[in-house]
Amino acid sequence: MAEPARSRHLPVPARRVAAAAAVVLLAGGVTACGPKDSSADGGAGATPHKGGTLTVLNSEPQTDFDPARLYTSGGGKVPSLVFRTLTTRNRENGAAGAKAVPDLATDTGRPSKNATVWTYTLKDGLKFEDGSPITSADIKYGIERSFAPELSGGAPYLRDWLVGGEKYQGPYKDKSPDGLKSIETPDAKTLVFHLRKPEGEFPLLATQTQFAPVPRKKDTGTKYEEHPVSSGPYKVVKNTGDGEHVVLERNENWSQKTDEERHAYPDTVDVRSGLDSSVINQRLSTGSGADAAAVTTDTNLGPAELAQIGNDKELRKRVGTGHFGYTTYLAFNPKVKPFGNPKVRQAISYAINRQSVINAAGGSSLAESATTFLPPQKSFGYTPYDPFPAGRTGNPAKAKELLKEAGYKNGLTLTLTHSTAKNFETSPEVATAVQEALAKAGITVKLAGLEDNDYKDKTHSIKDEPGLFIGHWGADWPSGGPFLAPIFDGRQIVKDAYNFNHAQLDDPAVNHEIDEINKLTDLDAAARRWGALDKKIGEKALSVPLFHPVYKRLYGKDVKNIVISDWDGVLDISQVAVK
After folding, report:
1. How confident is the model at residue 459 (pLDDT cuts 50, 70, 90)?
2. Coiled coil: which residue ranges (predicted)?
């Protein structure tokens, strides 16, 4: 996924922009959960009932309401109410929610021995909003149109994974009756996918919206987002302002019998976006009128708001806490002096004061200390380790010793590139905390703040990438694969577009291990291997993990059945009910 912007908002998959340019982006053992002390008067444990209107108050508009163009619909976001896919995420609290489960398909897929062929069978009784049956051809077509250049923006994996995908230009240009031949539909209920290489995590990829069915006769190209044909419990009846106001009503042809994951309790879902984060949190806090039955899927509480809520017992009951597989870190470019010297990188690793960094990121309620690149969830393969143990406040003496060994006994001067966006992550506050920590080790740090777009362009350019910058990464699904491979697989170094392998690491042993893990269809076994690989890479001191974010979200006093999973750490609106 990419590098979501942290701050008060749900991570926005910035890598979708990068993918489009290339044409080719949630303390150990912590889990995400709904509030344990919610009362029966609207809390997590209250009995849900059907009816009413759920209001969604968001900062970012729900643009590109087309399954081909969405990078990911997320575990709790609006598109998952309209678009069903072959598989979906398990809609449960915490770690249980980090698993793929069947959605349109009868199972999570049947792999060939080497995981290069995956077969799916559709459930009986699946229908679009107009009552017509959903067939395997509709899913194949939905995937094919995601290859069309005019519908770019979605995740790039299928282009890389499917045989022939790298050359296919979508059904608008390719008029052949067979379309993308690596997707076979031998009958109306069967799909067979042929992959270029083993991919044991294909069931996790199949949760993405590109796997949503689209009826060919109803496809209106770039205008499809105005009225996409629903396969889920709700249909779009209004979409104005490019996603600023979206209204969903019940899809009467959706059947709960075919969908064990979505409950569809409210009659209507009214999404209003383009709001200031402080306004959203104030409206959720006050809970007047329709706001009593409101939630947000993209706006966090900030430090000041958390402090205020801490004095209000009733408001504390309405704060959901979640964790997303995501890491903020210092990134080294060894191609730039003096970062090619491992001892310099190690010295900086020892000098970092993670406590001051966490304070700058909003405090321990909003950030957790990181010593591993992988996030602290089992599904990623999290294996606790700290190759350069310096405690929470750093070890400047050890850092000075390493600098001396590196030939810098009198210290050195460096430049740290960061974003000027007020996001409590790559922003000036965090950069200043790093600067102050390194000063104690004799390292003078000059801060180079860039406007956010310039920051992204510079830090993701092979040509212009600085030697030291604040980076961040979030996974497209809960696994070490989409976390480690884009950052450390040498074959994913991109020279002419957005590059995410900041260290430009091209280690044959690392590349080989990535390939070997991708062959595994036992995802628990794969997770253990990802954890071991994380440790191996971490010892190279190519980055300094700083912290993992914590999401704190308010919800209305009349909202019930709060579910927050480790998939993306946000409230799942497919589960909530209102009074």
Report:
1. very high
2. none
* Other beta carbons within 10 Å of 122: 23
Q: Rounded to whole angstroms, what are the CA distances from 95 to 109, 131, 480, 535, 553?
A: 21, 36, 15, 22, 19
Tokens 């051809």 locate to 137
Residue 448 is inside which H or E element, if any? Answer: strand 443-450
Q: How far apart are CA 170 and CA 40, in angstroms?
A: 50
Give the separation between CA 276 and CA 104, rounded to whole angstroms: 37
Is the pLDDT confidence value at 73 over 80?
no
* pTM across the whole model: 0.89
The one-character DSSP state at 192 is E
Strand partners, 120: 191
Task: Quick: pLDDT tens for 242-277.
Answer: 899 999 999 999 999 999 999 999 999 999 999 999
Q: Supply φ then ψ for residue 484, to 5 degrees.
A: -85, -40
Distance CA 180, CA 463 (A): 35
Residue 5: which pLDDT band, with cuts at 50, 70 and 90? very low
Q: How far is CA 561 from CA 5, 82, 361, 554, 577, in A?
A: 28, 20, 30, 14, 6
CA atoms within 13 A on the CB side of 9: 19
What is the token pair recorded at 311? 């004095």
Residues 295 and 275: beta-carbon distance below 8 Å: no
Helix (H) or strand (E) holding 515: helix 508-518
Distance CA 535, CA 542 (A): 12
Q: Are residues 329 and 544 in contact, defined by beta-carbon separation less than 8 angstroms?
A: yes
Distance of alpha carbon 433 from alpha carbon 422, whole angstroms: 15
Number of Cβ within 10 Å of residue 49's Cβ equals 13
403-427 tens-digit pLDDT: 999 999 999 999 999 999 988 899 9
Distance of alpha carbon 34 from alpha carbon 562, whole angstroms: 6
**Token representation of residue 333:** 């470019």
End-to-end CA distance of the chain: 35
Q: Collapsing DSSP states into helix, strand and coil, what is residue 247?
A: strand
pLDDT in tens, 204-214: 999 999 999 99
DSSP labels for 289-341?
Answer: GGGGGEE-SSB---HHHHHHHTT-HHHHTTEEEE--SEEEEEEE-TTSTTTTS
H or E segment and range at residue 487? helix 481-488
| Side chain identity, residue 81 | L
Would you give the DSSP letter of residue 195? B
